[in-house]
Amino acid sequence: MSATEANTHWPQVAWEHIAGKIRRMSESVGPAFPNGAKDGKYDLAPAHDWVAGFWPGMLWLVYRENPREERLKEIAVACEREIGRTLWEAFDRLHHDVGFMFGLSSVNQYELAGDGEAKRHALMAASLLAGRYNPAGRFIRAWPDWGGEEHSGWAIIDCMMNLPLLYWASREIGDPRYRLIAEMHADTVLREFVLPDGSVHHIVSFDPATGERRGALAGQGFAADSAWSRGAAWALYGFALSYVWTGQARYVQAAERIARYFVAHLPDDHVPYWDFKLPEDGRGMPRDSSAAAIAASGLLELAAALSPAEGGWYRTRAEEMLRSLYTRYAVEDPLEEGLLLHATGYYAQKIYVDAPLIYGDYYYAEAIWKLSRAGARADPQTAGS
Ligand code: GLY
Known about the structure:
By secondary structure, the chain is mainly alpha-helical. It has one domain (3-379): Glycosyltransferase, CATH 1.50.10. It has 13 helices and 9 strands. It has helices at 3-29, 54-65, 70-89, 98-113, 116-130, 163-173, 177-192, 229-246, 249-264, 289-305, 308-329, 358-372, 380-383; strands spanning 34-38, 41-44, 133-134, 139-140, 154-156, 203-206, 213-217, 343-346, 351-355. The strands form 4 sheets. It has a 3-stranded antiparallel β-sheet with strand order 5-6-7, with no helix packed on it. A hairpin with a 4-residue loop joins strand 3 (133-134) and strand 4 (139-140). The relative contact order is 0.12. Glycine is lined by residues 50, 158, 220, 230. Residues 50, 158, 220, 230 line the site of glycine.
């Protein structure tokens, strides 16, 4: 391959590398739920954990390319069976992140394998998510009370990525209720989380009875008034998806504002520190490669939703980020399970700092897949929209 060809075809080469890694990982992981990696091996999470959908999501990405890979499908189906059972067996442990879990597992299984049971699981999860809506504050409650804290008035930015499950469910049942809840939540986030400069809060707390705003909280960010980089990535991608599903201009404008902030605050290698507002501009602090992967996939979604003239800038920024992840952050050792090094899970609690994370791996795989297929949509919920 000439240097020019290598330059043009690198996303295909990167995708083949990723698909090979997922096939190898399927041997060591099987039907289980990877979370973060230590010493080259993934720790496993229970099926009710918010990360449970990412591994079956990765298996479906490879399977949709090559439906003869029955073994990968069988593992994904076994994962979905476990995730589906949490609707009964771990109902009180589930929360707003059912969008990540059931969207990538059950919706994919329904859309790619026509499984009606998986569809029912996804619709039940959508009902659970809609049931977390607080009409006084017009937000979806994020978490149960845990860690000795009362969370009934807490909404978090990550929830923007759970909204596609509601949009999808509304389309499937031919009833706008779930879409309306998603839009009301997105409007609250736009008003209360997104700052004029395009940075976003992680958590905003409301009085759960009156809906009155109490204030922003640091959450997984450095401070209440800082800018957690993965939160910005969830917001960018989530608003882009809300635009794809609703066609509302305010959502694409929000995605563009957040994207401009994200890109303007990247260091030279296009991969952010774990927060955009750290002392000394983050020098000496860990990066979060997962934030780069999520944002890059979101930028590709945004670019695909805009005209070529409007979307070109976002697509080029996504390519820069993904090229940097591929050349500087991708794991080369075939014996390591992770795909991407140098992600940060939760810095303040020292949970998976400078480690591979399954959601970083998922969005890296998804973004490279989209790039290598020029404009393809990987999200199971938007793929059919
Ligand atoms: N949704 C949790 C996280 O991004 O860490």
